[in-house]
Amino acid sequence: MVTPVADSVDIASLPLPELTAFVAGLGEKPFRAKQLFKWLHQRGATSFDEMTDLSKALRERLKAEARLVTVEKDLEQRSVDGTIKYRFKTHDGKLIESVYMPSPDRKTLCVSTQVGCAMGCKFCATATLGLQRHLTPSEIVAQVHAVNREVRANEKLEKLRPLTNLVFMGMGEPLHNFENLKVALGLLQSEDGHQFSARHITVSTVGLVPMIERFAAETDVKLAISLNASNDETRDRIMPVNKRWKIADLMNAVRNFPMKYGRRVTFEYVLMSGVNDSDENAGELAELLRGLPVKVNLIQYNENPGLGFNSTQDNRAATFQKLLEQAEVPAFIRANRGRDIAAACGQLANVVKQEGVTAP
Questions:
Q1: What pLDDT, on the 0 to 100 scale, is given for residue 259?
Q2: Cα(263)–Cα(286) distance, integer angstroms
Q3: What is the pLDDT at residue 350?
């Protein structure tokens, strides 16, 4: 991986209009910008030398005045269930993780948006890292390009974009890095890029209420809210964000969220034994969501050593689901993927689990 020049232009973070202006500043015709954009965001090029339909002179100029930010695969771990966790290293040595989850009808990638996270959720391993920095748009999309290359090679596929679905549920709070996220979404959805459709992209948030309003107005992809509690007392204890924006504030944001064109809101609810999984909690949750066109994904907690939380058992999870369905709230118990390689929800913390040994 080439280390980018600090004061050069991060070319893979530029939307096509800005890239066109940059190319024009080099004295090139506008069509060159579209060629360059396709190399960056259809083919996922990792060097200017790959761009063979650009003149050698232009490629040398690009090397001098632009930087092509990529991520380098640092580690790959494979789960017994087919999940693959990739650890990537950024140009400045930071480590981030992305999780590939294949299934018969889709190929989903869980994408990170920050190095670490600032939200401090008490049950989440990523929170133990703190926030180290935001990822740039180029670093966000580079995860997608890198895993596309891996899937093409591993599964012997010809398609430039074998991935079908993206979920922004990896390391970090996506709406805390909203400006960079928004640019990255535009690059991934571009007709000159990978053309991901809005209905195949989901962004998760712990509940940054003002940013939900911006997200609703400035993007067209789906929203998932990590709720994890049915009352403020519990949510205050396990999710510090709730001390600023209470559940009522969050629910008002959901009521104002535009649901047209198939857009929807999913609530994620991590079930933790003795914390939020009682019959009373199920009743409170049903009351909160009554009449809203939403669904609930129930996730049995993926245990993290030292954090002090335990997973809800199967029978209790099934009862919780049944109580929601009896209250006419659609609820599904989501299968946990990649638990054996610390790749499941809430476990991304750059930790390697191998043969019973845990190491950073």
A1: 82
A2: 21
A3: 63
What does the alpha-carbon distance between residue 229 and residue 193 come to, in Å, rounded to a whole number? 39
Right CATH number for 9-67 from 1.10.287.990, 1.20.1530.20, 3.30.420.10, 1.10.150.530? 1.10.150.530
Residue 204's closest CA among 276, 269, 290, 151?
269
**H runs (alpha helix) in the chain:** 16-25, 30-41, 56-65, 137-155, 178-189, 209-218, 232-238, 247-255, 279-289, 314-326
CA distances, 53 to each of 10, 18, 25, 56, 192 (Å): 21, 21, 19, 9, 16
CATH number among 2.40.30.110, 3.30.413.10, 3.40.190.10, 3.20.20.70, domain 72-359? 3.20.20.70
Q: Is the pTM of this model over 0.85?
A: yes
- Taking only the tens place, the pLDDT of each residue in 297-344 is 999 998 888 889 999 999 999 999 999 999 999 999 998 877 677 655
Reduce the DSSP state of residue 274 to 3 states and report it.
coil
User: What percentage of the chain reaches a pLDDT higher than 90?
Assistant: 85
Catalytic (active-site) positions: 97, 345
Beta bridge partners of 226: 268
